[in-house]
Amino acid sequence: MNILNIVGNDIELGNGIGRLIPEMIQMQNKYSEKIDSSLLLLKKQNIDFDFKYYFFDDVNLKPDFYRSFDLVIFHGVYFWDFLAIASLLKKNKIPYCIKPHSSFMRIAQEKSWLKKTVANFLFFDRFINHSNGIIYTNKDEEVNSKFYGVKKFIEANGIDFPYEDPVRDVNQYEKKKRFIYLSRIDFNHKGIDVLLEALKILHARGFSDQYEFRFYGKGSLEDERRLEQSLKGIGSPSLRFYGPCYGEEKIAAFKESDVFVLTSRYEGFPMALLEAMHQRLPCLVTPGTNISEIVANFDVGWLVDFKAEKIADGFEKIIKESHAQILKKGENARAYVLNKHDWKTLIGESEDTYQNIIQGGSS
Question: Which GO terms describe its molecular function (predicted)?
Fold first, then answer.
């Protein structure tokens, strides 16, 4: 099966899709005897991969290019060029599906509601309804997304994280609980505004000397400045923003932490969470991160409502828990990632999913 993955986003380490898609293509080509996966980027970018990739400026809407593929997968939704490509695919009877990566989640649809409502009605509903299916990253994303009457499939994110097992011992933990946020600095999407309110409440409750909280990530200049000013406003020496970190620096940051925190309003399946759990970090999350079912079934962390008071309660509970309890959840987190998100295991599921879509089947 020749698969073409189309991406509108920039391919960069700080971008979830940019982090996931190149790795996914590499792993599919490495482990599958049935899939030959390629990448088409809407924007010209300075990249270099060991698989086939193309730029839209070079191939444009040439039918012969697209006819060489058995299935086209659009990653994301709201890109105007997607509409023209989808129309060409339909005319040439080439199946395509959409992997929204959280774009269909109800709370994501509420952002710029009027603009999206008009755009959906005039343009994108047709693009979606004429597709051969929607691919979600897990059941939580499907359940929390806007309903469309097309076939639905599940394809989990895998992870190839070539770092050694950070074996943790209860005696290695420091007295203070060490929390880490390592993701994009985006106040709305990542719920940083509500997270900061929770930290303000925690400070008012007198817990500042019992924990540390480190923010890592890259965002707009406006959001980064807002974060720094907000942390100064809380006035706790336990809170710091360190900027972005990648590779070995990221691993070092994980090793110096006890609990990973992500309080997003909406997500597909965050790669940052998979990386943290791979490094034996249990997670404090809100429902928008789309791992509610995983937290409940595999005991990999704590799920709290997306409210400042509830998030603060979650922090307080963790601060009072023993290091042995945190260590156990961290062990569960790593076991979950290794068992459920290993590329070798997932490739077979992707083969079945793509075959179903191409043949017109359903999940």
Answer: glycosyltransferase activity
Is the domain of 154 the same as that of 183?
A: no
226: nearest Cα among 202, 270, 272, 195: 195
pLDDT number for residue 18: 82
pLDDT attached to residue 21: 94
The ranges of the chain with pLDDT < 70 are: 13-14, 169-174, 361-363
Range list of β-strands (E), 17-63: 36-41, 53-55
DSSP H helices in 32-138: 56-59, 63-67, 80-91, 106-110, 113-119, 125-129
Answer yes or no: are the C-beta atoms of 296 and 44 closer than 8 Å: no
pLDDT of residue 363: 41
Count other C-beta atoms under 10 Å from residue 214's C-beta.
Answer: 19
Q: Is residue 263 domain-shared with residue 355, that is, in the same domain? A: no
Eight-class DSSP state of 210: G
Global confidence as pTM: 0.91
Q: Are residues 178 and 136 in the same domain?
A: no
Judge if 326 and 236 occupy the same domain: yes
